[in-house]
Design goal:
By secondary structure, this protein is α+β, with helices and mostly antiparallel strands. The protein has two helices and ten strands; from the N terminus they run αβββββββββαβ. It has a four-stranded antiparallel beta sheet with strand order 4-5-6-9, with no helix packed on it. Strands 1-2-10 form a three-stranded antiparallel beta sheet, with no helix packed on it.
């Protein structure tokens, strides 16, 4: 049975040129042409599981809340799907592993990171 990309994947990865990589993984570009949607690889310490999804740690006191479908944690690492439209920084928690970093509260910083990671292939488990 040949795998197809479903409507939900087309919706959430719209503009990222999603493709089937294998029977377990999708691959795509790291950012859309207009930069409004990005995929960024992050370390384990950047993600906190919550009852409603995940918190992406930005600095010592700030996070972005993400839905489960915006996060892929797999053998190849952690990928997060971020959108300029829903970039909503919240003050939440005390993240001692992180310093205060005003720059990380800006979507443009994460867009630049996605651009720097463009040679690192996205492997999204799905």
């Amino acid at each position: 049975m040949k795998r197809i990309i479903n409507d939900f994947d087309n919706f959430r990865f719209n503009g990222l040129d999603v493709e089937i990589h294998s029977n377990k993984y999708l691959t795509m570009k790291r950012y859309t042409e207009n930069g409004n949607k990005i995929i960024v690889k992050v370390g384990d310490n950047h993600l906190i599981k919550t009852p409603y999804g995940y918190a992406l740690i930005l600095d010592n006191k700030h996070v972005i809340f993400l839905k489960n479908w915006q996060v892929s944690i797999n053998y190849y690492g952690n990928e997060v799907l971020l959108s300029r439209e829903f970039w909503n920084v919240k003050e939440w928690g005390n993240h001692e592993l992180f310093d205060k970093n005003e720059k990380n509260l800006n979507y443009e910083t994460w867009l630049e990171t996605a651009k720097e990671q463009k040679t690192n292939k996205v492997l999204w488990e799905g």
